[in-house]
Specification:
Two copies of one chain form a homodimer. Helices cover about 45% and strands about 25% of the residues of chain A. Chain A has about 230 residues and is α+β, with helices and mostly antiparallel strands. In chain A, the strands form three sheets. Chain A has a four-stranded antiparallel sheet. In chain A, strands 2-7-4-5 form a four-stranded antiparallel sheet. Chain A has a three-stranded antiparallel sheet with strand order 9-11-10. The longest helix of chain A has 27 residues. Chains A and B meet through helix 3, helix 4 and helix 5 of A and helix 3, helix 4 and helix 5 of B. Chain A binds a DNA duplex (30 and 30 nucleotides) through helix 8.
DNA sequence: CGCTCCGTTGAAACGGTTCAACCCACGTGG
DNA sequence: CCACGTGGGTTGAACCGTTTCAACGGAGCG
């Protein structure tokens, strides 16, 4: 598959003309990573940004003792690492390949040249960054103002919302990673899942979660987590 | 003072020509708020964004029980509320006047028209959003991966860094609000300040903090907060 | 003067983490 | 093909940092 074909399928670039896409494909570099491999590290110089082509990319922070807080999981078509490209500063977090993945890399200067000639691309980029800020604000809200049951309930409701409010959702990553996304540890997650099951709020069968009492779950999400 | 004069002093607009500033001043609205007054609320439709002219603006989240988590304090020249302007979605947080303040308000559509004609303005805006993402990522890191002493140490070091690493820093807001910024409560903040004083790391005299043992403070910030 | 707001202090309660042990499914190599 | 190791998940018990509630002190202000 050629770079130009990848670019055609990226939402961020959908407003571009064929000519503009060509100039982009001229500057993009295709890179592949195996599961778990580092893409960049906190403190690295950010000389460009990335877009996921296939697989998923995990962006996270690390504590001094090695505990990890996931900031975001990016899937195909989503850009990441733009923060340092536009601010000119170092990467503020780590990025690993969550699955075997491939990405397009856009060197900073070349991309800035393209964007200068295309207002619609910069508007699209502004929209992307704005949505990301919203996601991070929601994360702060969860971490600071809700307890773990509330965060977990919120997470399940989000997963369900993505699939037309289906009562049955498939976890898209391991429970250990979900714990890391929710700012806790696997043990705590396991216990809370257990409590929710006992209360008849949901059933947990491996990677499959069946929501039995949606209003109950919504209340836990709203109230911040008092498992009454 | 006229709107055009305010605009001239805003860093975000410094690359603009006089003509472009005029067109901006044509769309901007000057608004004043008294201390504590609401500017917008979470869930409000975002029809535009703001830039602080004078005073400060507090942007924060609220828990169901009324506890507040400050996301950011904005001072003169800084834009806020752009997230919903560019994403087209509702405001994701609350904004209050922290002091008696005045702001410029830019309606969404008019501003988008201006930005479309000026690549440098959109690049400046991308840089602003990127820096903001970095701040929020750091906040997540603090909240999730560090304990309160570590967050406080980090905060003091930031304050000090802003003034050429001065050993003596003036708190720019009430201790209660600092607690809210650090994701804790005033009581905890008070106790930790006390412990740090006892350990000879700093002296706390009202709004003035004197750093006595900078390496010690740096270690607390790094290690996440074990007050050994 | 008395009110309110902010900060401080103490004691008790709580939610979450840590550490350790254990289980199971899975894949690998002998 | 079975033994073994590994990684993910679960469970129990002790521990710990932080919150909560209540009380109190001081500064500022009408």
């Amino acid at each position: 598959v050629r770079v130009i074909d990848h670019i055609a399928s990226i939402p961020l670039f959908e407003t571009l003309s064929g000519k503009q896409r060509e100039s982009l494909s001229g500057i993009a570099v295709h890179r592949s990573y195996t599961k778990g491999q580092a893409i960049f590290s906190e403190g690295d110089r950010g000389e460009g940004f990335y877009i996921v082509v296939s697989g998923r990319v995990k962006v996270f922070k690390l504590s001094s003792e090695g505990r990890e807080q996931i900031l975001h999981i990016f899937g195909p078509g989503e850009p990441f690492g733009e923060v340092s490209a536009f601010s000119g500063l170092d990467f503020p977090a780590y990025a690993d390949a969550y699955d075997d993945s491939s990405v397009l890399y856009f060197p900073r200067d070349a991309f800035l040249r393209v964007i200068k000639n295309d207002p619609s691309l910069s508007l699209a980029m502004l929209a992307v960054l704005s949505k990301r800020l919203r996601v991070l604000a929601a994360l702060v809200d969860n971490l600071s103002l809700k307890e773990v049951p509330g965060r977990l309930a919120t997470y399940f409701l989000q997963l369900s919302a993505r699939e037309n409010d289906a009562a049955e959702v498939e976890l898209d990553m391991s429970k250990g990673n979900i714990a890391s996304l929710l700012g806790t540890v696997p043990e705590t997650l396991s216990r809370i899942l257990n409590r929710m099951s006992k209360r008849g709020i949901l059933r947990s069968e491996g990677q499959r979660i069946i929501i039995l009492d949606r209003p109950g779950l919504e209340e836990i999400a709203r109230e911040g987590g008092k498992l009454s």
